[in-house]
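Priority: medium. Attachment 1 of 2:
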């Protein structure tokens, strides 16, 4: 029987679907517990809503990066990489209140959780957190929801590793252009596939903010492909974006 589980963490629901192969029920349960613990640990460390989290304390100047848990420095280094690759349209330091890596950290945490299942011996699987998805073991066919209607798919994508979508789905105009400080809104949604979810997550955020010109920028990142749904509802993919036939 496949493993199916939903875990609530980081203000959203994470769904697990995995093929346990020959793993015993006890081994499956142990791996799942460790994967879920990784999600909750990420929340405790990086949440800006938890007053005493290391990132909240860092934002208030009560803690230095050197004194924070090691994963804080690791994630901030990934934020710098994402900033360079996105031409500055992903900028964890340009948000109100101080540094905020949450545009990347959910993808990073999901990727870690999926890696725990894979290392434990699951043959294949998928971890989905609000449309940010890491798969392993075999390609998965994944639907991208229409920005206009929750009961419709805009397209279906063949995903080998990671896919992330950024848009106005639930939270409205919550993403700011770091170059202007104004809310983004040039497209309805932006989707990125790539080898790692932390990167796809950050680039999808940046692409939604930058809009159509960002397609060329994402296409230049090795292994990454992108799709924008523009304001008219037209699908605009980069060459090689893995739309299912």
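Attachment 2 of 2:
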């Amino acid at each position: 029987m496949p493993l199916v589980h939903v875990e609530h963490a980081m203000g959203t629901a994470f769904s697990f679907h995995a093929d346990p192969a020959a793993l015993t029920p006890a081994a499956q349960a142990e791996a799942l517990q460790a994967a879920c613990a990784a999600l909750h640990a990420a929340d405790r460390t990086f949440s800006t809503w938890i007053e005493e989290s290391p990132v909240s304390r860092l934002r208030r100047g009560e803690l230095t990066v050197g004194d924070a848990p090691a994963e804080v420095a690791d994630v901030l280094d990934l934020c710098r990489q994402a900033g360079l690759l996105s031409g500055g349209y992903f900028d964890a330091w340009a948000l109100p209140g101080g540094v905020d890596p949450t545009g990347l950290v959910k993808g990073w945490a999901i990727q870690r959780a999926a890696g725990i299942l894979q290392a434990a011996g699951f043959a294949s699987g998928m971890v989905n957190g609000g449309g940010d998805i890491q798969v392993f073991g075999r390609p998965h066919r994944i639907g991208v929801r229409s920005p206009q209607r929750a009961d419709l798919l805009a397209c279906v994508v063949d995903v080998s590793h990671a896919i992330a979508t950024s848009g106005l789905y639930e939270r409205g105009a919550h993403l700011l252009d770091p170059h202007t400080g104004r809310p983004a809104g040039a497209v309805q949604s932006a989707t990125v596939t790539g080898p790692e979810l932390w990167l796809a997550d950050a680039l999808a955020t940046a692409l939604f903010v930058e809009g159509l010109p960002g397609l060329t920028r994402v296409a230049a990142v090795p292994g990454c492909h992108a799709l924008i749904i523009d304001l008219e509802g037209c699908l605009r993919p980069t060459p090689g974006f893995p739309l299912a036939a």
